[in-house]
Design a protein that fits this description.
By secondary structure, the chain is mainly alpha-helical. Helices cover 76% and strands 3% of the residues. α1 packs across α2. The model has no long low-confidence stretch (mean pLDDT 92).
């Protein structure tokens, strides 16, 4: 079977499950992102080891998961005290973020101090890079879904009131699911259009130092497909977005998503590997499949939080 055929079969099997988890949101989506993060960080660590660096994989994963939990703050701050009967101190979201950073950095440095491995500077740098680049960035994918929880969502401009009915709260949750699904679909449209558009029309190299097969023509096809994907989603599913806002998110996917793909290609080229792993037949590793989503998630999260719902 051709590599394209294998890619299609794996995608057909995996995509419905991913979309279902995005739709469900909450802990189901967070657990899926946590699983993606753990595997991607292990692949990142393997790439670093191929360069002779020895990152602290366990510390990197723990920090990444802790940063992901910060984006679940509102949900956890309601559910855990209720589960334990209340009466426990609970930090604010920004306090939790600072606590993680203030504990993570000295822990990594002290572990390296007693670890007795070659290249401590590069080991610490790779550990921090993995925790922030993959851990924090992917954690924001949970934030992108959680921002539609009623406590965080700036509902006044949308519904004209913050005192929502059950139907309005259900609408909010639906928009959250549709938003993540639309972003994922736009990324996949962008990747597919860039691949086939580049193969059919590609003449001018985009970034030969990093990815020799990518062309400007393919990148433009990918950008247009990302815009079209978000515009269609706005018309059918995302009633809270203006057309211009949907196009901005499409541009984020079409530009920042493709830059994320190039960044991962840069790291792979430096490590001397073609794929981050062989876990997904026809697709490479989990890091390969989610490289654009890792870069797009924080940009969309910030745009929604500080611009659309400001």
């Amino acid at each position: 079977m051709s590599n394209t055929g294998t890619r299609v079969i794996v995608a057909v099997i995996a995509i419905p499950g991913i979309l279902l988890l995005a739709w469900l949101g909450g802990y189901a989506w967070a657990l899926f992102i946590a699983a993606v993060m753990v595997v991607a960080l292990q692949e990142f660590a393997a790439m670093a080891r191929a360069k002779g660096t020895a990152p602290q994989t366990a510390a990197m994963i723990l920090a990444g998961l802790a940063l992901l939990l910060v984006f679940l703050h509102e949900r956890l701050s309601a559910d855990i005290p209720a589960l334990l009967g209340g009466g426990i101190p609970w930090p604010l979201q920004w306090q939790a973020f600072i606590w993680i950073l203030l504990l993570f950095m000295p822990a990594v440095l002290l572990i390296e101090l007693f670890r007795n491995r070659e290249g401590p500077l590069l080991n610490v740098a790779a550990t921090v890079l993995g925790a922030v680049y993959i851990g924090l960035f992917l954690g924001s994918a949970v934030g992108m879904r959680e921002i539609f929880s009623v406590l965080e969502f700036h509902v006044g401009p949308i519904f004209g009131t913050a005192d929502l009915t059950a139907a309005q709260m259900s609408q909010l949750d639906s928009w959250g699911g549709y938003t993540v699904i639309s972003v994922l679909a736009s990324i996949w449209l962008c990747d597919t259009a860039a691949y086939f558009g580049g193969r059919a029309m590609g003449r001018h190299k985009l970034f030969p130092r990093v990815s020799p097969n990518k062309t400007w023509e393919g990148a433009i096809w990918g950008f247009v497909a990302a815009l079209a994907g978000m515009l269609i989603a706005q018309q059918w599913l995302l009633g809270y977005l203006q057309v211009g806002e949907a196009l901005v998110i499409g541009a984020i996917v079409g530009i920042i998503g493709q830059l994320g793909d190039l960044v991962e290609s840069l790291l792979k080229r430096d490590a001397g590997v073609k794929d981050s792993s062989t876990l997904l037949p026809g697709h490479g590793g989990v890091f390969d499949r989610f490289d654009s989503f890792i870069f797009v998630s924080p940009a969309v999260f910030l745009y929604l939080d500080f611009v659309v719902f400001a």
